[in-house]
Amino acid sequence: MATDTVRGARKFGRYSLLVAVAAIVLFPIYAVLLQALKSGADAFDHPRSLLPVDLTFDTIRSAWTAGNLGKLLMNSLFVSTVVTIGVIVTSLLAGYAFAFLNFPLKKIVFAIYLSTMLVPGEVTVVINQRTADSFGWLNTYQGLIVPSLASTFGVFLVRQVFLQIPKELREAAALDGVGHLRFLYEVAAPLSRPTLGALGLFTFLGTWNAYLWPSQVVNDNAHRTIQLGLERLKTPNDISKFNLVTGGLVVAALPIFIMLVVFQRQLVRGLTAGAVKG
Amino acid sequence: MILLGPSGCGKSTLLRMVAGLEDPSVGDVFIGEQRVNDELPKLRDIAMVFQSYALYPHKTVRANIEFPLKVRGVPKAERAEQALHAAEILGLAEYMKRKPGQLSGGQRQRVALARAIVRKPAVFLMDEPLSNLDAKLRGDTRTELVDLHRRLDSTFIYVTHDQVEAMTMGSRVAVMNAGRLEQVGTPQEVYDRPASAFVAQFIGTPPMNVLPVGLLGTNDVQVGIRPEHLLLASEGRLSGNVYQVEHLGHEVLVHAESTAGRLVARVDPASDLPVVGDAVRFDAADHHLHRFDAHSGMRVS
């Protein structure tokens, strides 16, 4: 009985800790959501009130119209989808080459390739912006999309899973006359589905949330992404629209939230794929 | 044809060269009358069964067996029919919808075989296909393979380090050591007339006794005697002390330490058996002696 009590207490302690951590993580989200559901005047009068009283969708609605968020959402959706597909394709191809093919200087090329991960994006943003400009890609979709189509991390991740595929599978396929592309499509990629799912999800989230690069290549309404649009919802001088930006935040975060709920299992499986693969 | 040899002797490499997975640095590979050195693996008309089976884990048994046909563009209906036929030969028909992960080792092994036979290749290459099975299953599958070989009537090249497999399955055995071919012959030939001291000691359980130079009236060669030919004889030319007696039921193995090294004799359990510590004498009939060159180890006839 005594051990039961100890175990119970330990369990209680553990869960209390989890609840506390969850509360800390969720609090800002709750605060933003609550702020977005207040009218502008209410938000100005009671900025710190955390009680859900007098809730209204007005702020979100006016953020939607004021920021032209529908169009921006479509832009973000388009850019994120194309980038995600592109990253998966390029990571598959390059990861396959690094895992299954033999070519001169393979290890060195891979090392150089990996070392690019050490260079922060901020360092290259200016020169990349100039390059995009020289291509005439400012205010275009290709300016938003093309520079993100290949991901070092993606290539690395795919190579690592591919290295776990037994060499005999490739050899057995080669004896049957299966070429590299077909092997990639029929065997290697399907076997790596959890990892590819996670890579796709991360890429989508990363692109959806990207701010720095889009802000450098786009400043017109036709191509602006949702994150850039939020910036324009800031109205520090208009008391009646004090909380407009929080309404925009909710709109911007909602699709991501839905995706996370839907693909939660994929995400966790992909992250633990290397650890528990049997 | 069985390629037999200890680990690392090059038998798998040889098989892989036949398959085209590795390039020989010298020499030619012929399949039938055709030199295939420069042919891609897929054009060599071979099928290979890997030690690890190399089944596609995400495909069903049916899809695994059909895959070689699918790659070759065989129409769907024909493909299904041939896959079913191959599966039936190996007793897999009821498992067609399962994935490899849901099968036992023996069943996976049979799927790998079915995937090979569905192609109807000129040559089957098998790389230790039984080594991942437990002893009982290995025996059964060995019999099945022999039967399959007889029914399909095509060439099998079979790599193993297990001399029992080699002796029971092969029409011909090629014994390899350290990258070199020691002898090619029928199992009986290889057993009765080993071409070298290595072959003599590699084949047979327990292995042949090989005595140092200068014994049994020979002065320039090593002499080999199979344990079953080494007889207990009170007037024998070899003497030793028994240090172990193994009763195997149908036979008894007497191990003795002698001036010529350790000796093993296979003895009839019904005979008068020595016990550990006894001083015994052995002899063998001259026509049962194998003579090997003192330096090269090659047979001297």
Automatic annotation (TrEMBL), chain A:
<feature type="transmembrane region" description="Helical">
    <location>
        <begin position="242"/>
        <end position="263"/>
    </location>
</feature>
<dbReference type="GO" id="GO:0055085">
    <property type="term" value="P:transmembrane transport"/>
</dbReference>
<keyword id="KW-0472">Membrane</keyword>
<protein>
    <submittedName>
        <fullName>Unannotated protein</fullName>
    </submittedName>
</protein>
<keyword id="KW-1003">Cell membrane</keyword>
<dbReference type="InterPro" id="IPR000515">
    <property type="entry name" value="MetI-like"/>
</dbReference>
<feature type="transmembrane region" description="Helical">
    <location>
        <begin position="12"/>
        <end position="33"/>
    </location>
</feature>
<dbReference type="InterPro" id="IPR035906">
    <property type="entry name" value="MetI-like_sf"/>
</dbReference>
<keyword id="KW-0813">Transport</keyword>
<dbReference type="GO" id="GO:0005886">
    <property type="term" value="C:plasma membrane"/>
</dbReference>
<keyword id="KW-0812">Transmembrane</keyword>
<feature type="transmembrane region" description="Helical">
    <location>
        <begin position="108"/>
        <end position="128"/>
    </location>
</feature>
<dbReference type="Pfam" id="PF00528">
    <property type="entry name" value="BPD_transp_1"/>
</dbReference>
<feature type="transmembrane region" description="Helical">
    <location>
        <begin position="140"/>
        <end position="162"/>
    </location>
</feature>
<feature type="domain" description="ABC transmembrane type-1">
    <location>
        <begin position="73"/>
        <end position="263"/>
    </location>
</feature>
<keyword id="KW-1133">Transmembrane helix</keyword>
<feature type="transmembrane region" description="Helical">
    <location>
        <begin position="77"/>
        <end position="101"/>
    </location>
</feature>
Automatic annotation (TrEMBL), chain B:
<dbReference type="InterPro" id="IPR013611">
    <property type="entry name" value="Transp-assoc_OB_typ2"/>
</dbReference>
<keyword id="KW-1278">Translocase</keyword>
<dbReference type="InterPro" id="IPR003593">
    <property type="entry name" value="AAA+_ATPase"/>
</dbReference>
<keyword id="KW-0472">Membrane</keyword>
<dbReference type="GO" id="GO:0022857">
    <property type="term" value="F:transmembrane transporter activity"/>
</dbReference>
<keyword id="KW-0067">ATP-binding</keyword>
<dbReference type="GO" id="GO:0055052">
    <property type="term" value="C:ATP-binding cassette (ABC) transporter complex, substrate-binding subunit-containing"/>
</dbReference>
<dbReference type="GO" id="GO:0016887">
    <property type="term" value="F:ATP hydrolysis activity"/>
</dbReference>
<feature type="domain" description="ABC transporter">
    <location>
        <begin position="2"/>
        <end position="203"/>
    </location>
</feature>
<dbReference type="InterPro" id="IPR017871">
    <property type="entry name" value="ABC_transporter-like_CS"/>
</dbReference>
<keyword id="KW-0813">Transport</keyword>
<dbReference type="InterPro" id="IPR047641">
    <property type="entry name" value="ABC_transpr_MalK/UgpC-like"/>
</dbReference>
<dbReference type="Pfam" id="PF00005">
    <property type="entry name" value="ABC_tran"/>
</dbReference>
<dbReference type="InterPro" id="IPR008995">
    <property type="entry name" value="Mo/tungstate-bd_C_term_dom"/>
</dbReference>
<dbReference type="GO" id="GO:0005524">
    <property type="term" value="F:ATP binding"/>
</dbReference>
<dbReference type="InterPro" id="IPR003439">
    <property type="entry name" value="ABC_transporter-like_ATP-bd"/>
</dbReference>
<keyword id="KW-1003">Cell membrane</keyword>
<dbReference type="Pfam" id="PF08402">
    <property type="entry name" value="TOBE_2"/>
</dbReference>
<dbReference type="InterPro" id="IPR012340">
    <property type="entry name" value="NA-bd_OB-fold"/>
</dbReference>
<protein>
    <submittedName>
        <fullName>Unannotated protein</fullName>
    </submittedName>
</protein>
<keyword id="KW-0547">Nucleotide-binding</keyword>
<dbReference type="InterPro" id="IPR027417">
    <property type="entry name" value="P-loop_NTPase"/>
</dbReference>
